[in-house]
Design goal:
This protein is mainly alpha-helical. Helix content is 54%, strand content 0%.
Length: 63
Amino acid sequence: MTTNTGKLYRQNGVVGGVCGGLAEFSGIHVVWWRILFLILLIPGGLPGLVPYLIMWIVMPKRL
């Protein structure tokens, strides 16, 4: 069980930690976030890549 601090942080993850941070914040398992971003990459990449990159830049890394 993870503890939600109420803030959105990147986690030590596979690529940038965005999915791990979203999983901890929302309580949804990290696999489902990764599947969502992969599905969004199918129609040409931009619907999944752009939001991921923006979140990677904006979300602070957990220390």
